[in-house]
Amino acid sequence: xxxFDILIIGAGPIGLNCAIEAQKNNLKYVIIEKGTIVxxxxxxxxxxxxxSTAEKxxxxxxxxxxxxxxxxxxxxxxxxxxxxxxxELNIHLYERVLNVSKNSEIFEIKTTKADYKxxxxxxxxxxxxxxxxxxxxxxxxxxxxHYYTEPYPYARQKIVVVGSSNSAVDAALETYRKGxxxxxIVRHSEISKSVKYWVKPDIENRIAEGTITAxxxxxxxxxxxxxxxxxxxxxxxxxxxxxxLLAMTGYLPDFDFLKNSxxxxxxxxxxxxxxxxxxxxxxxxxxxxxxxxxxxxxxxxFIENSRVHANMIIHNIMAKNIL
Length: 323
Fold this sequence. Notes:
It is a single chain. By secondary structure, the chain is α/β, with parallel strands linked by helices. Helix content is about 25%, strand content about 25%. The chain has 8 helices and 19 strands. The protein has helices at about 15-25, 40, 75-85, 165-175, 200-210, 255-260, 305, 310-320, and strands spanning about 5-10, 30, 90, 95-105, 105-110, 115-125, 130, 145, 160, 180-185, 215, 220-225, 225-230, 235-240, 245, 250, 265, 270, 285-290. The strands form 5 sheets. Strands 1, 2, 3, 4, 5, 6 and 19 form a 7-stranded mixed β-sheet that branches. A 5-stranded parallel β-sheet has the order 8-15-9-10-11, with helices on one face. It has a 3-stranded antiparallel β-sheet with strand order 12-13-14, with no helix packed on it. Strand 13 (about 225-230) and strand 14 form a beta hairpin. Helix 1 runs parallel beside helix 8 (about 310-320).
């Protein structure tokens, strides 16, 4: 069986960057991706705009051209998929990695389509796969959505949006502007400070004027077929009519996959153990790259501050080969 120098799990921006650096150093590599190229970005809301400017999203020094001050989802898809085509990166798409194990000095990787062997493995899987569940009765009802794409299905519907970060605020504003009756359930005392600075005043003004209802320091308790039940800041129970519930409560890395790969997870945030200068985990020659490094703290790493991981990883691998 062919033995790769590096097998990269995930074809997101950082996984692509790792492949580019491997290619530059004449290393035999392959990317295994469960969906399409930059699959997480593909599944973002259709009209989402990044907080970062285009130049902060660039990889490999390739200019990211955008006519808007803040590029959107489609801009990013064109950019990253264009780089994959231009560089002719070796990517296997729609193939999920099931298991990573180490036999002596070689990793054995099993996927839904094949088995692979590699000297080094880079996990760059992000955190968009697993919703952070509310763990309440009725969460499995069809009207509960953990992913939001566009507002049109929610026109003239009674919508509850759970959360107060960017995804929740975008969903609340967009559905409201398409005619939905929107109620926000927020477990904190205010809209998150991390909300995009040009959007935050908009949601706060809509709440202040009463066109969007918001309950702060509140907690969702149960979802029913036609209603939802929540507790307000005074502990009082409310049951209101409801057609759809958008649970914008965030997403988590696949901790079971990390743990089964041998990576040590620490603390309440399940932070994976890795060396901050090499990105190597407690398993020799197994590396982490990108937002997966943050554990439950998914606001720690972004594209713009984790682009450097590729250089760090490849430099460490090349140094070992030289030695």
